[in-house]
Design goal:
Blueprint (H helix, E strand, L loop, with lengths): L1 H20 L12 H6 L3 E3 L4 E6 L2 H12 L13 E7 L5 E8 L2 H14 L1 E8 L2 E8 L2 E18 L6 E16 L7 H15 L12
Length: 213
């Protein structure tokens, strides 16, 4: 009897461990209450019906200002630890999606590994400088995008102050989205939809290349 209880305990422990190991990254924000958002420093925008948490490197901003004053080279790339998390809601306080934007290569590889190991119907597509992965995880649709941004600029003048140095750089921006299937809603979206309907009614809708296909 003791052995049977012990085996059941071990099975429950293993099940709990696997469930925890496969927990959806950033999925906890889909179930946050208003008080939990506030406790975690999220800011609410009533117009867009979103909760947002943003981190921007203050050090980079300060150094850029000093670089401009000193006519030196400024750092135009985002800091690798910068990020933005946006939770969009629909009607009746139901979460529509979570969007995470970051610039950390390690974070991207962790998310990509999670999707490939735990996602269903994983699809990879690429177009130009964008690589997209899509998958399903339970009732959620997941999307992971990597986009390369090129920076071509003129840096500070050289010592003789007659010539300039051209700098070509690049960085990757990563976007992870969890979609619940709930239609996003906000006063801003309603206004945009009303403007579009008004334009369409006047026959001023601009045709896209797809419309002309």
């Amino acid at each position: 009897m003791f052995m049977k209880k012990f085996l059941l305990f071990c099975l429950a422990l293993c099940t709990a461990f696997v469930a925890h190991a496969q927990e959806l990254p950033y999925g906890k924000y889909l179930n946050f209450s208003k008080s939990e958002f506030k406790e975690n420093k999220f800011k609410y925008d009533e117009e867009t019906n979103t909760w947002t948490l943003r981190k921007t490197s203050g050090l980079n901003t300060t150094l850029n200002i000093l670089a401009i004053i000193a006519d030196a080279e400024e750092e135009v790339r985002p800091d690798r630890n910068d990020y933005r998390i946006v939770v969009q809601f629909g009607k009746e306080d139901r979460a529509s999606y979570v969007k995470v934007v970051c610039y950390n290569d390690e974070t991207y590889h962790k998310l990509l590994t999670f999707m490939k190991d735990n996602g269903e119907k994983v699809v990879e597509t690429s177009s130009g400088k964008i690589v997209k992965h899509q998958a399903y995880y339970g009732d959620y649709a997941l999307e992971l995008n990597m986009e390369q941004h090129n920076i071509s600029r003129t840096s500070a003048r050289t010592a003789d102050r007659k010539t300039v140095k051209n700098v070509d750089e690049s960085y990757n921006a990563y976007e992870f989205i969890i979609k619940t299937g709930v239609e996003p809603w906000s006063r801003y979206l309603e206004k945009q939809a009303a403007k579009k309907a008004k334009r369409d009614a006047k026959g001023k809708k601009k045709q896209s290349v797809d419309d002309l296909m």
